[in-house]
Structures are given as structure tokens and as C-alpha cells.
Amino acid sequence: MTRLAVSAPGEKMAAVQDGGSEPEGEKEPQPELPSDGSSAPAATPASKPEEQQQQQQQTLLAVLQFLKRNKLIESVDALRREAGLADEPDEAPGSEAGGGVGGAAAGSADSADASALLSRVAGAAQSGAASAPAKGGEDQPDVSVVLSAYSQQGDPSLYQVYYSGLKKFIESVLDCHRAELSQLFYPLFVHMYLELVYNNHESEAKAFFEKFSGDQECYYQDDLRVLSGLTKKEHMKGNETLLDFRTSKFVLRISRDSYQLLKRHLQERQNNQIWNIIQEHLYIDIFDGMPRSKSQIDSMSGSLAGEARREANKAKVFYGLLKEPEIEVPLDDEDEEAENEEGKPKKKKPKKDSMGSKSKKQDPNAPQQNRIPLPELKDSDKLDKIMYMKEATKRIRLGPETLPSICFYTFLNVYQGLTAVDFTDDSSLIAGGFADSTVRVWSVTPKKLRKVKSAADLSLIDKESDDVLERIMDEKTASESKILYGHSGPVYGVSFSPDRNYLLSSSEDGTVRLWSLQTFTCLVAYKGHNYPVWDTQFSPYGYYFVSGGHDRVARLWATDHYQPLRMFAGHLGDITCTRFHPNSNYVATGSADRTIRLWDVLNGHCVRVFTGHKGPIHSLAFSPNGKYLASGSTDGRVLLWDLGHGLMIGELKGHTDTVYALKFSRDGEILASGSMDNTVRLWDAFKAFDDVETDDFTAATGHIHLPDNSQELLLGTYLTKATPVIHLHFTRRNLLLAAGSYNSQ
């Protein structure tokens, strides 16, 4: 079984509450309540003002009692001053808070804190209180507090009327506003449905779902299937989907003109039910300028929590490459024989630099050399770099006229058990992870795999001899492949270290293991994840590695530390793939929540959030110059991202199934994509990036018009007989290697 089949997060997990990683922005619009100032729903005009006042007073006293019990004296004094309570309040009567949002402290400067506390009081009392919830991402609410947000706010029979009224209004506005305001349908539908279910209005909830679920965008169908299973209040407790919707605000990007239209409509209709949901559960990112078109909105929509906020992609990203160490490349024998033609190697060096893979000059967009500590180069590393540079002089320059040759490695008789593949940088070894818990390593050169001799035999070796590295290897153990045993569950990720001395593997058993390729034994089992680990990858400089899995948290490790150095929390779904940036200062993670995040290794901050995919992301690849990122998903599309501007700049359509492997050629001219549709496709990456003019980037609105030029960029499609492509690798001379397991069914 391939990793695609098993990595879809089908099984429910105990409430893992990572929340959003970005703090709630100061720019979040908090529109005034409708002009009548009432927080009671329009459907219940019979509510008496004195009853509301009494309920608010009871809530306020409950909060004060909670603060006193926890000896938060300063908070008690501050809340009393804000609420205008001069005397010490008496014991709070039974907390039966009504439909008010925020209570008497709603206008205070500390309203967010008061709201959070109010939620806890309501949750602890298990009352049906309509309390303002704690803000998503700032807190880790328990289930009772989360559910308290869905207390009854109106007549359940009128929910369809509220929603239909808004739908009718949006369908009546001008086309330019309709596309933007239609984004409200999905989050409002979800929250109104959950509110009905929580308050035991099962028949009304079912009718509401059946009437309006068909109106939602097609890319939310998987979410709606999960939601349709939540038909009773008991189903909601501990449900991760509910926690996702509740603890993270759904982000909508709307122009100011469209927003003013919506605000005016809700105030005129006094539709407090929808207004309250917008205030509590949605984050409206308002921009000045022309409203976006339907195609522009669709290209960025589809993630579990809406679009990324614009400020989430404003941080500076040092995407440039680190300066390469000065290493003199000795002349080859053939070069020396060529009558010492000094110009010969010099002509080849610019060829390598022009391909943008490694730079000898300091890149202005590169991080400082010592921004993060990197391992020092060993002598063996320097020798390897010399070999790399020699290979680069013989590299084929790819382009539309010179496409790469493709060598396909097919794994036979694995009965769909192949779940992960990796090649070493020099293409000499290939590793596979399997569903039977094993990791297997093959040599793809005539040189066989050998273990180091036993300690007793090593003591007899002359350590001063020139060929000591050869003598320590045991010829008796030579074979074309080795099997590594240790995991207790399917292996979902494998990654070779740059120096080819180590191999990482991640598994369903929740561990990442480090294997020695000298002894073919397990050196360390890193335990930090509590659930399956879907992917792991070594840094381009070795030493560091990253892992991500079902617990939605990516972890940064160092090989000599048993505990992770960083934890990257923020995704609302499984982390399905992880990749290091070429300069090792950043880590990209793709997730089942249909977003990609870029994390700063130095401080753990999330510096980019990319939305646009309509299905879980399964492949990521950085361009060799570090400026761009490509991502592939179950939606069959490959999206291209500009890291510096934080924007999507291209969409490659052609695959008919999950894009499971992506790789740029060594010069960055070609992008190869491999899919479960049994094809490898080659794309003109140079043209895709060259066509994007920086003038197209609109900083104010944060979007551009994507050219629909997939067919122009597609250079070739290569079909296998029945082998899904799960890994791609370009050799140092730009030969493309692909791998997958033959599917006989």
C-alpha cells in the first residue's frame, strides 16, 4: 500500500489542540453591533431588558467569583472598576447566563481576557451560556469551553430564514461584490449547523444541512462529509474537526466596498445571529481597491481555515543561498593532457554559476553565514564537493529543446508495500521504506554494500596505512542490498544524509530512527511524536533534520540531541510532507489542512502561509536558487510560489491524480512531477518564473492574475505501464531518476 493510501488522516485522534500559530492581528475589523445596541436575536423580541440585565449581572458575578477563588486580586479590582461596581459583590447566584455576548464588561479594554474567563465559567458550569469564547490560537481551550460557544442564540426554526435571507441578498448584489461575499456561505453554514446540533435541535440541523450543503464549493465536500456525521451533541465532544473550526478563525479577504455592503445589510435587517458568528468565528481581512474576481478568489481558496492573512506573508525571508566555501578543484587527467589549456576549466565554471545552483558571491537575499550554526566541513565533505563541482562541469544544460533522459526504478513483488523512496545526492544508493516495517538499502552502482569489521578485527589493522578506509570494511558482508529492522509499523519516510553515512526513517510507530550506513544498525530512535510520522528529511548540510506527522506538529532535530530543538505548531491537519530550504534556514511543511507553511529555523516563527490547494499536500520542492517553491496535492495540480513576495505565481494542470513527487533539475530550468496517475511530466520552470513580472505583484491586495498557460509549459508526459511515481531525483549531470512500485491489479 502506498503512503497516499495510508496518510490520509481518516482515523480520529484524541483532541490535539495546536491552534493557529499567528496571534490575532490588531487590524482585525471589529464592526459595531447593529445600531439598536441589542445583543438579543432579532427572532426573540420578547426578551425583557431587565431579564438581560439580571443575566449579565449573574455572569459578571460568576467571573469575579472565579478571579477571587484563584487569588487574582488585581484582575478583580480592574474588572470591578470597568463594570462600575463600587462595593464588593456578594456570592454569585447559579450561573444561568443568557444570550449576551461579553456581558457588562463588553466595552472594557480587557474584554478579550474577560471573554476568555467567561467562557471557562460557562464551560465549567456546563450551562447553556452564550459566552464569548477565548480567541483561537492564543489559548488551548478544553472541549467544554469550545462547545460553550455554540449555546443557543435564536429560534432554531429561523436559522434557515437567516441563511436564506443572506443568500438572497448576496445573489442580488453586483457581480463584482457577489464573488467576494459568497465566501461567507461556507463558514456561516458550518457554524450555524454546529450551533443547532449542540443545542439538541437535531431535526432542524438535519433540514438545514440538507437544504444548504449542496450550495457549498466543491472543494469543501470532504469537510462536509465529516460534518454530516456530527448529528448529535455527544458526537461533538473531542471531535477534532469541531475543534479546528472553533479554535481558528476562518479568514476571508474582502474589499472595503463589499464589506460595507454586507455591514449595511445586516444592520438594516438587525440580523444579529449572523453578525455574532462573523464577529466571533471569522476574521475579515479588508483591503482597499477593486474587488477580486471569482477566478482570483478560487485560486486562493480551499484550505480548512480560509485564506492566509496578508500580514502572515509580510515577514522578510532570506531565500538566497549561502556562500560556498573556497575549494580549489584539481585538474582532471584529461584536462592536464590537453596541453594545459587554462581556458578550458574556466569556460565551464561560468556555466555552472549561470545555472543558479551554488553561488560563490554573497547573495544579497541570503541569510548571514552564521545565522544558524552549521556543521564544519570535514575532509571527506571537501572531497565530495570537489567531485560535485567536477560533475557539474559535465552537466547537461536542460531546456525545451534538451529534455532529460529518465531512468525508472520499479520495485517488483512488493504487493503495494512500498511507502517511501530516497536517493543519495550522488545517486549511488537507493532506500525504500515498506509497510512491513523494514527499510531496505540498495547499491545502484557496481560497488557493493559492506559493513565495518568487528572490533576485534579492527584492532589488527594498521591505522597509518594509506588504504585504511578500505581495510576496515568486511568483504564477507558485501551484498547488493541490506535490510534494516527496528520499526514496529509501516515506514512512511526515508532520507539519506548528504555525506551518505546515515539514513533517517519515520514510521507509524511514532519514532524517527537514525541508521548507520557503515554498520547498518540503528543508532538512535527519536521519540517525540505520539502518532504516525509521515515524513522526515535531512538538512542539505546534514546534522539537522525535520519530521512531521499525524499530531500536526513538525519538529526540528539535531542528530546528537535526543529531544527536538524546535516545534512548529500551527497546522490544522496532519503534516504530510517536509522539506528544508537549500540554505537550511527554513523548513516547509505541507499538510492535510490544504496549506503550506514556511518556518524559520532560527526562532520557530511561521513566516509564510500558502493557500490554494483543494486537497491534502503530498509533495514539496524548492528551486535550486532558493527563490521558489513548488507543491503538489491530491487535487492533481502543481502550484508555484514566490517566497520573497509570499504569493502564488503559477498553476500547472495536467495530472489526473495525486502529485506525489516533485523535483527541480540541478540548474532549475525543468520541473519534474510524478503522480499516482502513473506518469512523469516535465514542465518549463524557467519560462514559468520568467513570465512573472514583478509589476504583477499587488502589495495592497496581495494577489495577482494567474496566467492559464499549463499547456505551453508542459514539455513532455511519460507514461509507465502500471507504476505510480512516488519519488524523483536529478543526478549531478541532470539525468532524471524516478521510482515506484508496480501495481499488478
Q: Outline, from the CA principal axes?
A: globular
The quaternary state of the protein chains shown equals single chain
- SS-based structural class? alpha+beta
Please state the average pLDDT score.
76
Residue share in β-strands: 15-25%
Q: Output the strand order for the largest sheet.
A: 4-5-6-9
Cα distance spanning the termini:
12 Å
Largest sheet: 4 strands, antiparallel
Residue stretches low in confidence (pLDDT < 50, at least 5 long) are 1-48, 89-142, 334-359
Fraction in helix: 25-40%
Count the DSSP helices.
Answer: 22
Number of strands: 31
Radius of gyration: 29 Å
GO cellular component, one term: transcription factor TFIID complex
GO molecular function: RNA polymerase II general transcription initiation factor activity
Subcellular location: Nucleus
Family: Belongs to the WD repeat TAF5 family.
Sum up the structure in keywords.
alpha+beta; four-stranded antiparallel β-sheet; 745 residues; 31 strands; disordered N terminus; globular
